[in-house]
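Researcher: First entry.
Model:
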Amino acid sequence: MTEGESLRAICRNVDMPSEGAVRGWAVRDVDGFGDRYRAARLLLMDFWADQIVDIADDGDLDPRDRQIRTGVRQWIMSKVSRGYGERLVHSGDPESPVRVVHQQLLLADLTGEQLEALDRFTALIVERQVVKPGS
């Protein structure tokens, strides 16, 4: 895979295990195979990225053929590899949850203790915004 050959093509060779067996080893991380498989997939993505440039620059290819060949590789890379895909943040995404950081409150709803805390907080803010002589 590091030289641009797909897992499916490699496993078609009679001397190689089935594609399903190889994927199973990667998932179960048999003898550290999962890490090596993921590294090979990343190198395959790099190979395809280089290939996209080569195809796009190949003036002998029909423009529509170039567009299809590069487009297919780009689409696969965006789905398979986080490094080449577009990152969209959705609300509720566990990795980047959307949080509400502003809430409107009525002063009438605050307790005496909360009002005192708010008073101290605003006094500190005002104090820090005042320019002191010599600073």
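Researcher: Second entry.
Model:
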Amino acid sequence: MEMEKAYKRLEMEKDQVRATLEETEALVGQEQGKLQRFQVELSNAKTETERRLAEKDEEMENIRLVYCSAATVAS
């Protein structure tokens, strides 16, 4: 009788632990999804920033060339 009660109690505890594990695994999966989305957003932001920096570098080079041409003509 006591053995049966102990066995049933252990079975219930095992079921609770299993349910907790499943919930935890689901939460980990959700967090991994968030992390992947964040990494994509970060990568996109980095790409956009690098593109804008390249555009600014090109603008600065064009201004320098125009200035040098104007200085040469003025000489």
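Model: Note on the second entry: Residues 1 and 63 are 92 Å apart (CA to CA).
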